[in-house]
Amino acid sequence: MKHIEVVAAIIVKDDKYLCVQRPWNKYNYISEKFEFPGGKIEHEEPKIDAIKREILEELKIDINVIEESVTVNHEYPDFKMTMYSFICDANDYNFELTEHIDYKWLKKEELDTLDWAAADIPIVEKLMEK
Ligand SMILES: Nc1nc2c([nH]c(=O)n2[C@@H]2O[C@H](COP(=O)(O)OP(=O)(O)OP(=O)(O)O)[C@@H](O)[C@H]2O)c(=O)[nH]1
Asked: Which top EC class is named for this enzyme in its record (predicted)?
């Protein structure tokens, strides 16, 4: 089974977290699910470079990485993934959605109201227990 390595940014602003919704996808279990923005690590790319690059590509903002958070190992029906998450902030939060179809800024208590990609649930749980 294919194994991918992914980085995800937990972007915080005034105690709210940025949650973004994926577009339609052939795999129904990730299609239109909410996630933390990010993407695949390129060959031999440092994780911090990968997350800054992905957020610049996807949201057109320059983030600051504050600390590494949960690492999730998840097996979907068609691929396995390891996802490294990072708590981040930004000096300018004026982002543009270039790939995602919607977004929400939610307080930690509200995070479980969204339909999350399964791999993100451990991150949501960790944030909610803070
Ligand atoms: N970025 C991101 N991907 C996630 C999360 N949760 C989760 O299950 N995934 C899955 O991990 C994979 C990440 O790939 P991606 O498509 O976002 O990454 P990418 O932009 O580098 O991909 P591409 O180069 O194929 O377009 C997707 O299959 C996605 O559904 C998450 O919180 N963030």
From this structure: hydrolase
